Structures are given as C-alpha cells and as structure tokens.
Amino acid sequence: MNRFVACLLALFPFLITCNGRNQQGYTTTGTIEAYTLDIRAASPGKLLYTNIPEGVKIPRDHLLSIVDTTDFHLQKQQIHTKLNGISIQLQSLSNKAEQLQIRLNYLNKQHDRLAKLVASDGVAREKLDELQMERDVTQAQLEDIPVQRSSLLNQQEQLREQLALLDFRIEEAVIRAPASGVVLERYVERGERLQPGHLMATLGLTDTVWVMMYIPEPLLSEITLGDRIAVNTDGQRSSHQGTVEWIAPEAEFTPKTVYTEDTRTSLTYGVRVQIPNPDGALKIGMPVTLRFSH
Asked: Taking burial as the number of CB atoms within 10 A of a residue's CB, which of 28, 115, 184, 247 is the most buried?
C-alpha cells in the first residue's frame, strides 16, 4: 500500500503537466457588438408615414416611411406640358420644311425661266434680281429648319432627363430597410419635413455580430485569420462558434475592462471575431467569454 502511494506521488507532477498541455488554451472576455447602418432620407418632403419600431428586428425591404411627393408630381405635369408643346413645334417645323421646299422648287424653275428671258431681253433684269432675292431667303429659311429642330430635340431630351430624375425621386420617397436588423434608434416622427441626407434611423445588422478580444503579444503567432473561436454566454450551455476576421497590425495597451490589475499595462493585439447570429440569441452589449486553443 505504501509503495502504491509512493508511486502515485512520484507520477503526480507528470500527470499535472500532461493535463495542462491537453487543456492548453487562452480565455478572455468581450462584449457583443454589431455593424450599424444609418438610414437617411433621399428625397425632400413631409413625412406622411413611418413604421420604425425601436428595439424590434425588421426584415429586409420592411416599409419604414413614405415622404410626400406632391411637389414632384406637379413638376412632372409642367414637364409633360412642355414636352407636348415641343412635339407641336416639331410637327410645325416639318410642315414648314415641306412648304419651303415646294416654294424653293417653284422659285428655282422661275429663276431658270426668267434667266433665259433676261438673256433675250424679254424681261427686265430687276425681275430676275427680285426672284433671286426671294429664292435666297427661302433657301436660308429651309437651311435653318434643322438648326431649330436640333434645338427643340435638345430641349426635349433635357426635359425627359428631368422627368426620369423626378421619377427616381418619387421612388426614393418610399423608404425600405436595406437589410434585416434591429432598429437601434429612430430620429424622426410623422409630420416632420425632411431634407436629403436627414438621418431617420440606425439599424443594427445583427444577423452576424462581432466581438473584440485582446491577446498578449507572445500568443500573436498562435492565431491566424479564419481560426475558430468558442464564444460562451452566461446561462447558455451550448457555445457559439466565431471566426477570426481581423487582427490588429499594431500593439496597444490592454483595455482596463478586460484584464486584471497586474496585466492592464501588458501589450496586446486586438482580434475581431465574427459570429453568425441567425436566431438573434446574441444581443448587442451582451458579455461573452472567448476561448481558443493554441
């Protein structure tokens, strides 16, 4: 019996060492955070409708608000009126061009006829000069038609561009959630008059959250991008699996909220761990424990 106890005492340090190697790892703490997305108004106008529930997770394309577009529709009516006017002018130019061409053909024939008569002294030279002047004026008017037409077409194109921009502004007046997430803050109320860029809400993208952990400089070589990190929360038996997505390129002093008094001045490297959170179990601000083996 005494010999058995003596053997155990002799092996005890070795067993402790082996157990330490098997359980070798690093444990630290952190706080759950999420990327945020600011939702801003794109079109000016009065806020007619809003459905931005703070603290509630909303799906992608959730209708957040509708901005009054009366001014845009009135501008569209004015543009349509101008476009109709331009269409009438273009048709009038086409008719005028046809008439001028017919007149010019007639004047050319008359010019040739009078020129022969003048050559035989059958008609005074003044008659030919008067006809020549009228022909030149008609020719100039006909040549000016394409210039006028081009100007009207340019105006028409500009008005159509303005119309497309107004249609775009009207579409932007209906504001939907660009991604699923939790509404962290709402900054507007129904009836407010908004301007482009007005901050309406902040959305927390909680489908994937992240936590910042800090590792001592000696362990930096033990962790790489893509490493799996076990993430545990109080009261939950099962752990979440995170992935290292970023490692700080420079060292910093350990944040006071992470380490004990004797290690606060240690140099550490920040490591950001991304954690899938499809069920929303991990809440922003929740403390967690992180562990990785090395």
From this structure: 28
